[in-house]
Structure formats: structure tokens, C-alpha cells
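User: Working on a comparison across species. This one is Solute carrier family 7 member 14b from Kryptolebias marmoratus. Can you predict its structure so I can line it up against the others?
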Amino acid sequence: FSICDKNTTESTEIIIYSTKVLTTADLVSLGVGSCVGTGMYVVAGLVAKAMAGPGVILSFIIAAVASILSGVCYAEFGVRVPKTTGSAYTYSYVTVGEFVAFFIGWNLILEYLIGTAAGASALSNMFDSLANHSISSYMITHLGTVRGLGEDTYPDVLALFIALLVTVVIALGVKNSVKFNNVLNVVNLVVWVFMIIAGLFFLSASNWEGGNFLPYGWSGVMQGAATCFYAFIGFDIIATTGEEAKNPNTSIPYAITASLVTCLTAYVSVSVILTLMVPYDLIDGSAPLMEMFAVHGFLWGKYTVAVGSIAGLTVSLLGSLFPMPRVIYAMARDGLLFRFLTHVSALTHTPAVACVVSGSFAAILALLVSLRDLIEMMSIGTLLAYTLVSVCVLLLRYQPDGQIDTYQFNSEDDMDNLKHQNEEPTKDDHVLMEGADHDRCTLSFFFMSFFLWSTIIFGVEQGSGLGAAFSGLMATLMMGSLVKLLILIVQQPESPQRLPYMAPCVPFVPAAAILVNSYLMLKLSPLTWARFTIWCLIGLLIYGCYGVWHSTLELNTREQQAHASSYRRYDDNLDDTFSPDDLYPQDQDDGPYQGWSAPEERGHRYQNQNEDREDEQEQSQYEEDGDPYGYQSGAGVQYPSGGSRSKGRTNFGFDDEDD
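Assistant: Here's the predicted structure for Solute carrier family 7 member 14b from Kryptolebias marmoratus:
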């Protein structure tokens, strides 16, 4: 940290800057480490065995296209508020509004929660495979099986302990450093190259012949693509490193794109080797890459892949659990979740309560839910969150000039002050209440896309006869409506605001992301939708019964209304029988009487004294509010446009003052 001497400047500023050490290569390593774990060592085999066969290759490509479309929108979202280590929740809170931010944050919690459980379950399956499935056999014999939230499974006690262990590590403040992440990624890379080279000696083209390449048809490929989307989840961790990146405006979008391309290359190559080495119906669903060498008697290959599995799954597990308490902490601090979740440990300076609560829930899921059900449920939550990010980009690109220019804010204090100020209506008011033409078109496009794909999937693909024909006619009409909505959006005046990085071909790229993501969501199983609906209803119940009444925006609004009401009552009780002419010369401009608090009734000398006292109080407050644990905290930092100084506190530095 570099600290400016407060005695060297007239404005008495104290600015603490975080060390910007992350290069684009470091960000790519973070993104690859978060994605290539469960995706490569579990998802490829699971989708090939149960959904797409060797067509899993096409499933990964389709999922990658959807991820790239969402990734460029996510990159613009991150560049709009680059001076933060927040997430899509923070971005949407600042730029769009409270309700949309809650819904995105709630789905991000689902992503991280199930990602942690899936990582722990995948590690447990890997150890079970190394032990020749003796662990699972012992648990089934002594504990039996449970229905859980989906297919029958055994109580995975080992996954429970793994999740709890990682929870303790995160709660103690042991962070996943970049160097440690890079080392594990190198191990992963070496094992990946080994699998490709060693696998060439065991290939059999007959595994793709005779209709075996698409045994479940294109419907299975698309269903597999919806599940394979899980394998690309994790690139959003790149957008949370804007405060440590040397040049976030260019590094973030380039790193997101490069990490997605790298992951796609790894997944496709591994899928080719796997399906050519082992027939799709004989693939081991729990540890496919390890068992594909064991099938051919190459045990050293199995143990080598086990080393890579440990490295990849460990990074993936830590990457899922580490950001989850931070999102919960931010939502609880804004009043949208229960306030006790903002408790910060004075010893470790981490949100210990949020860590323990979230880690415990993840451990319970790992204990009771099968890995396949976890992966499907995680995909649907993240698909919806990324779809809403694309919707937000469309809304922000066509906002009027008077809307908030979030890119101008130079510190997290400024952004936090923006989140909690009440001088202007929230973005929810602009989007949902004013009903601008473009906003209505964007929201209509979002909902119409779900209606379109529902009609095609459940009416055309699964229907027959007159029902399928009628569904096809309805789908054609809805396609025409979508085209008309897109034309109306294009005709709207675009905001003149320019960012260092902007998603290309707007509104077509965000619209394509909405269409692709909504289709993949609807290809998931009905049971997955049922579980996801329950999760959303729980979130809406929390927001309606608690968040609406305890949110910081609501509390500030009530306080402002109370002050305004007190001022009115005070003025009503004043004795206005005298004339202002008794106090001021007759040549003064006539005007309505404003009460004793009017500025012109104080005198110039008292005004100067009050202003001096206010300046001294502000300087004292800035010195007291310094945050030694935040990445950046500013005092006296002004808006570039000439706005007032911010007194907001950083929203991502955990401080023991919050206890």
C-alpha cells in the first residue's frame, strides 16, 4: 500500500491503494483454474454416458458459444464498475436496481453453493475410484441409500467432511493465492497433455461408428449442452479482480475470452480421447478420465490422472466457496439478507458467520444429493443469472444521458455512497415504473424468448398431429414478434457514454445470449426446474418479508421522510405574525418567507464559520473511517464531474468495526 502524507496536500487526503499486480496471464490462470476442474474430470464423462454419447463434443461447443455471448456482456458489466472486487450483484445494484440485484445475487449464491457441494462430491468420487469403490460400497452397506433431491444416492459422508474442511480453511482467512493457483494449473496442464498423448495409443474408431456418435439424437446434444454449461461456470471470478488487475479495462475482457477458449480446447480434446477409448455406455460416471486408463490396464495412467484430478478439483472447490460469503456479506449489509450474516471475525477479518452458514448448507447438499443432480441444478441458476446480466447490458446501453455514469467513480467509497444515496429514484423506478419504450421492449424480449422455446420444445418437438402444427404456427408468430421487438430496440437512441470495453454488436449479441441461454434452461429436466422454482420462491419470500423492509434504501427513505415531516411540523408552529421587512431593508428582493433556517437569515459571517466547522468535521470523519483491510478506501475523493465527497464505506473490505 502507498499512503499519501496528509500534511503535503491542502485538501488533507488519505488514500490507500491496493497493489495492482495481476496481469492478463494471471487473470486467465484464475479463470481456467475455476472452470477446468469438475468440468473436465466429471462433466465430460457424465454427459457422454447419460445424455449425448460422443456428441458431447458438440454439446461443449454449443455451451461455449453461450458462455462467450454471456462473457462479453459480463465483461462490459465489470468495466462499468471497474474499481470493485464485487460481483454481478454489486454491478446490478449500482446500475440497475435493488430487486434485480437481489435476484441475481440469490442465483449467484445458488451457483456457489452447489458448486462447492459438487466439488466436494467430485473429490469424494475420485477417492472412491482410487479405492476401487470400497468407500461407496461401505456406505451403502452400513448407511443405505437416500432419495435426496433427485435420483437415489448414498449418504456421501466423505463429501460432507471435505466441504466442512474447506469451509474452515476459508473462514480462517487462508486465501487461494495466485501463485498457488498457477502451480495447480501447471499440474493440470501437464496431466492434460499426458492424457492426450497416452490416450492416442488406445483409440478405437468403432466407438463412433454405426450411429454411436449421436445415440440420443440432437435433443440429447442440446440437453447435454445445458448441463455442459456448468463446465464454463467460473469465468466471473475474473470480473471480481478489477481492483488488483494492472489494467482492468483491457485485461478483464481479454482474460474472460481467453479462459473460455482455453477451457473449450481442453474439454473438446478430452471428450474426443474419452469417447474413442471407451464406448459411451461403458464410461464410468463418477471418475471417467481415471477409469478410461484402468479399462485398458494402464494403472500408471490412472494414478497420473488422479494427481491432476486433485489439483483441478481443489482449485475449483476453493473458487466456488471463496466468493460465496462475500456475496452473502454484501447482500446482508445492504439489508436484503439477515443482518447477522455481516458479522466479521476480529481475528481473521473474514465474514465468519456467512462462511459457516454457507459452507454448512453446501456440506449438507454434498451429503444428500447426487453429483448429476447438483450439476444440473447449478447450470440453471447460472444460466438465469447470466441471462439477466445480458438484459441489464441492453437496458444500460439505451439509458438517457441523465442516468448514472458508473464508470466515472474512482473509488469503492464513491460506489458505496452511490448505492445508499436517496436523492434520486432507484433504477428499478426507471425500468419498471416509468415504462420507457426501450425498457418495455427489452423486458418483453426476455419473456417472449421463454414462451417461444417452450412452444417449440414442448409443442413442436414433443407434440404430434394438429397440436404440433398449431404450436408451429404460434412459434412462427412469436419469432416475428421477437424480430419486431429487436427492430424497435435498434431504433432507440443509444447512450453516448463510451467505455474502454463495450460488448460488440449490441443489441444483437445480448439478444443472442438471451435466446441461447433461455433455450438451454428449458432443455434441463423438469425436476431441476421444480427444485429451482422452490429456491426462487424461498428467495422471494425472504425479500418480501425481510429485504423490502430492512434494505438500506428503504431505511434511508424512511429517515428522509421523517426529517421532512419534522421540518414541516416545525415550520407550522412558527409565529409568522411579524414582517420580514422589520429585519431587512426595504430594497431587498421580495420573496416568500422560508423560516428561520433560510440561508439569507443567518448572515455571511456565520455562514463562513459553519462552513469551516463542517470542513473540519469532514476531515476528522475521513481520518476515522479509514479501512485498513479494504482493497481501496478513499477520503476526500471527489467525483470527476464535480460531485460531493463520498462518506460511504467500502463494501468489500471486511473490517472488525462491523462486529
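For your comparison, note: The chain is about 65% helix and 0% strand.

User: Helpful, thanks.
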